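Wed. Picked up where I left off yesterday with Hpt domain-containing protein. The coffee machine is broken again, so keeping this brief.
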Amino acid sequence: MNESRNTVMTAYGRLDETALLEVQNNYDTSVLLRIVEDLAELLSTDGDRDGLRHMLLRLHGMAHSVINGAGLTVSTEAETLPELAGEFIEEAEEMISRLQGWIKQIEPLEQLAVRS
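Structure written out below (tokens, as returned):
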């Protein structure tokens, strides 16, 4: 294969020429900025929603008390252990779904790699 004919050297490496033409014609780079904003929102903790880390720490406290007989470290007035576990799972699944969407949006850039 004549490498110079099928690839293009850029400041960021040698890229597949056909894939580069495809993304130049069809890829909106502003999608990456939207992902940045979405990621910032996902990682922040706002007043209406506990962060996943905090939820997981509360869940550990509850499970540690119930399973290992440790003293209470989490209020018993809030949700139950299964409710908190379910809430955490729901939040984590939402995060996974968002991450999978981001991956699909970024995959065209991975396709710029030169294939042998």
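Quick read: The longest helix spans residues 81-110.
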